Amino acid sequence: MSPLPSSALQALVDRLSQLATLSPQDVDSLMGLTTQVVRVPANADIVLPGSAFDHAILVSSGLVGRFVQLANGERQITAIHLPGEIADFHRVATPRAGSPLQALTNAAIVRISGKELRAVALASPAITEAFWVYSAIDAAVLARWAVNLARREARVRMAHLFCEIGLRMESSGESARDDFLLELTQAQIGDILGLTPVHVNRTMKALKEAGLIEVQGRIIRIPDWTKLCAIAEFDPEYLQILPQEDQAA
Amino acid sequence: MSPLPSSALQALVDRLSQLATLSPQDVDSLMGLTTQVVRVPANADIVLPGSAFDHAILVSSGLVGRFVQLANGERQITAIHLPGEIADFHRVATPRAGSPLQALTNAAIVRISGKELRAVALASPAITEAFWVYSAIDAAVLARWAVNLARREARVRMAHLFCEIGLRMESSGESARDDFLLELTQAQIGDILGLTPVHVNRTMKALKEAGLIEVQGRIIRIPDWTKLCAIAEFDPEYLQILPQEDQAA
DNA sequence: CGGAGTATTGAGGCGCTTCAAAGGCGGTGG
DNA sequence: CCACCGCCTTTGAAGCGCCTCAATACTCCG
Question: Which residues from chain B sit within 8 angstroms of residue A229, using beta carbons?
Answer without folding.
Answer: none
